[in-house]
Amino acid sequence: MINRPKKIALTLLLIGLFGLLALSVFSYLLHDHWDDRVNVTLADGTTLEVRNQGSEWHYFSFGHAFGFGGGDRRERLEFERHGSRFVWEGLYEPIAVQFDGEVPVVIVFDRESTHSDWGLRYYRKEYDWNEQPLSSLPRRIALLNMWGYDPDQAADCDPENSRFQCSLTAHLWLCISTGKHYQDIKHINATAEFLRSFLDLMH
C-alpha cells in the first residue's frame, strides 16, 4: 500500500507529466508546419530538388489593422548533389540554395532578429555551416531561387525593367557591392547602370 507522502509525490508527478504533454500538444497546434519538395534552378542552369521543412507560430489576423502571432521560426533544408547529402537548419527564411563549385551555399532572409536588424545573410558549408560576410558571396551565384523569387519580377534580370530594379535580387546585389546592410538600402531602386555592371561581373 502506498503511504501518503509517496501518493502525493506520485500525484504531483502525474500532474506535471500531464501538464507537459498538454503544453506540447497546445504548442504544436498553434504552430504552422510545412514539408515541401521544390525543384530549384541553380546558377549554372541545372536543377536541384530541395526538401524544405519547418514551423512557426500561427499568425492570427483580424483585418488589416490588427493581428498577432508569428515568429519562433524553424527551417530545415535537405538536398543531395553528386552523391553527397546536405542538411541546413536555422531560424531564417531560405531564399536561395546555390553551389560555389562543390561547396553548398544557403542565402536567407532574417526576419527573426529585431526589426532594425532584419536583412540578408549567407551561409556556406566547408566542414560545418558558417555565416560569411554577404560582401564575400560570389557574384556568379547571387541569384534567388526560393522564397522571394518572382520570375515575373526578375524579368530575366533585365536591368531596364523597373520591377527588377526594386526586386529582392537587386537589393541582394546592392548589399554585396556596397557592403551595406539591407535596412540601409531596402528603399533604394538599383539603377540600370549598376545592374548591367553587376551582370557583367557575374560572367
Fold and architecture overview:
By secondary structure, the chain is an alpha+beta fold. The protein has a domain at 32-149. The chain is built from six helices and ten strands; from the N terminus they run H-E-E-E-E-E-E-E-E-E-E-H-H-H-H-H. Strands 1-2-5-6 form a four-stranded antiparallel β-sheet.
Alpha plus pi helix count:
6
Query: How much of the polypeptide forms β-strand, as a percent range?
Result: 35-45%
Widest beta sheet: strand line-up: 1-2-5-6
The whole-number mean of residue pLDDT values reads 81
Structural class: alpha+beta
Number of strands: 10
Low-confidence stretches: 21-29
Task: Summarize, please.
The chain is an alpha+beta fold.
Helices and strands in order:
Layout: H1 4-29, E1 31-41, E2 47-57, E3 59-62, E4 66-69, E5 74-81, E6 84-90, E7 93-100, E8 103-110, E9 119-125, E10 129-132, H2 151-154, H3 162-165, H4 168-178, H5 182-185, H6 192-202
Antiparallel strand pairs: 1-2, 2-5, 3-4, 5-6, 7-8, 8-9, 9-10
Describe the structure using short key phrases.
4-stranded antiparallel β-sheet; 30% helix; 203 residues; alpha+beta; elongated
